[in-house]
Amino acid sequence: MVVVFGPALLTIIGSILVMLFVPHPVPKTASGGQRLYLTHCATCHGADGRGSWRATIFLMRPGNLADPRLMDRLPDDYLFTLIKNGGATIGKPGMPSFGYHLKDDEIRELIRYLRTLPKQQGEAQPKASRTDSRVKRGRYARSGRPD
Fold it and tell me: Which residue, of 16, 18, 116, 137, has the greatest Cβ tally within 10 A?
């Protein structure tokens, strides 16, 4: 019995460890800022900036970098300090410090890329479903059920 389930169990455990600890893949055509983001940030913030399942597993809730309202409120100096020194100094203990891993120019390039994430999400808005269009036309409002 151990002979049959042992390799299967090792495969499952190995797959889970790979999913948790292997970094996000970086495409060959990635820009410098995108490459930095996917290498250092996508593990928690997700490739699209809306959060990652990996962060959820560890009960972390990273900020939604694809939310234009959030990103427009945050000045570049704040983002620079947050990325360089980490979040512990400003009350966000889940955000690690990247000051030892990234040069100041790389942090500025990363911030320029972060500013493009909300715009990318705006271009990729999903089309409204049939139910959404019914709600907008008021069909559910009258009868409380679909036609």
Answer: 116
